[in-house]
Amino acid sequence: MTALQQNVSSPAEISFAAARLRQAVQDKELSPNDVLAVFDVWAKSLDDRELDEIPGIVFLRMWLRRGTLEPIIARELGPNALNAGWSDSGRARCRAFPLGVVGHWPAANVEIQPLLSMTCALLGGNASLVRIPRSLAALTQPLIDRLVRSDPEGILTSRIFMAAFEHGRRDLHEAMAQAVDGAMIWGGQEAVLQVRALPFPHWARLAVFGPRISVAAMDAAAWSDLQERESWCRRLARDVWQFDQQACSSPQVLFLERDSNRSSAEFVQFLRRAFESENQAHPRRTIPAGLTSAITLARASWLLQDSTHSAVFPLSPDWTLLLGSGSDIPQPTQGKTLTVLEVDNLLEPVSKFDGNVQTLGLGVSDTEKEREITRTAGKKGVDRIVKLGRMHVFVPPWDGSDLIRPMVRMVRHVSSLD
After folding, report:
1. Any alpha helices (H) in 28-168, and if so which ranges?
2. Which H/E stretch holds residue 105?
3. CB-CB contact of 4 with 159 (8 Å)
4. Residue 283 phi/psi, 5° resolution?
5. What counts of helices (H) and strands (E) characterise the chain?
6. What is the rounded CA–CA span in Å between residue 183 and residue 37?
């Protein structure tokens, strides 16, 4: 069998691979149930200590489970979609059919994203032509090797080709675009605009997930609750640690509602211990020099900027808490750097959101207050509002959009005898 991941150097290689993938889709129909059967085996094979250091690997295993995906398939494609059946729609019936070959342009800063993106297209019966950033090629290989072993009959692997090449090879990007019927595009503003400008066929469908940031918020009653405080801090620390705070769903700032009867200093100490525990459980093995510089600069700039500012951090650049007040979202540093800002009312920062906030993680004890925050956040462009600790749960809608349905055609059939 041809290796699923290859270093590609010419447009002809991509064109040849795309033609093979398109033929695989035409030769045999693939139901979501067929895909899930392979995903189940693949998920079990990823439960391997050798893979534990890959950021997001636990999440990938959870995503691949049947229990996660079956409800998503039913919601997006219809109640009978699991076995590629038709669903009634008034006097007609509807069924999902694949687009054909779906191209994937994942962001290079989320290690498991090439695979997550690929799975969305496969669930729709498509083939996947995936561009692998060179920086992720070595990390992706052991995950793909386990997929190959989990799929001895080639049910899915016959529909996958992963092309590793440098970002600057426009000729290879163009060859990919010309060969696909749909595309899932992820990444920063510049990368997204460059991919969208490629020569896609006029019929190709594009699903774009551009750069955004995420925010956490807690009301006074939640963070001052002595029984729940430690649990809230652990949840927030887990959200910060996953994906090294580089994902769009990673919290960059925590807005903390003031309590007139209690200082937040005690809460910060609980948060500090949660960060220390998370760092001990999931220590950073290496850190790029540029990120170390950015973290050091962020710490110094914060402390010199305002006399009311303070910070908590170890001598190393492993994690950082920047403490202050205000309702504006600061420029993200990432690298497990969380800015904690006190506000009088959580609606202050939420009402300033400008559409760039993807996920709002909440710890709110008052149900009516949470409903008001949710209504305001929804109007201000937030797509996901979840409990702290669940900010990375990869369940559609994602960025306000479905993940499987955009890469299928919903065919409507009205009987000629009706």
Report:
1. 32-45, 57-63, 66-77, 113-123, 134-150
2. strand 101-105
3. no
4. -70, 150
5. 14, 16
6. 25
Q: Which residues contact 177 (CB under 8 A, 6 or more apart)?
A: 103, 183, 195, 198, 199, 200, 204
- Contact indicator for 34, 90 with CB cutoff of 8 Å: no
Of the candidate CATH numbers 3.40.605.10, 3.30.565.10, 3.90.79.10, 3.90.245.10, the domain formed by 5-210+399-413 belongs to: 3.40.605.10
pTM of this prediction?
0.85
* CATH number of the 213-387 domain: 3.40.309.10
Give the alpha-carbon dihedral of 79, 374, 242, 324, to 10 degrees: 180
Sign of CA dihedral 115, 120, 125, 128: negative
Q: How far apart are CA 122 and CA 100, in angstroms?
A: 10
Exposure string for 208-221, b = 16+ CB within 10 A, e = fewer: bbbebbbbbbbbbe
Q: Can you tell me whether residue 51 is helix, strand or coil?
A: helix
The answer to whether the peptide bond before residue 330 is cis (omega within 30 degrees of 0) is no
| Partners of 105 in the β-ladder | 185
Q: How confident is the model at residue 3 (pLDDT cuts 50, 70, 90)?
A: confident
Task: State yes or no: pLDDT of 346 exceeds 60.
Answer: yes
d(Cα 150, Cα 37) in Å, to the nearest integer? 10
| Domain regions of the chain by residue span | 5-210+399-413, 213-387
Q: Would you say residue 418 has pLDDT above 80?
A: no
Pairwise CA distance, residues 49 & 351, whole Å: 44
Can you tell me whether residue 247 is helix, strand or coil? Answer: coil
Asked if domains 5-210+399-413 and 213-387 share a fold, the reply is no
Judge contact between 138 and 151, C-beta under 8 A. no
pLDDT digits (tens, 9 = 90+) for 209-257: 988 999 999 999 999 999 999 999 999 999 999 888 988 899 999 999 9
Residue 392 Cα distances to 146, 239, 293, angstroms: 24, 7, 27
Beta bridge partners of 324: 341
* Residue that is written with structure tokens 């959101």 in the block: 353
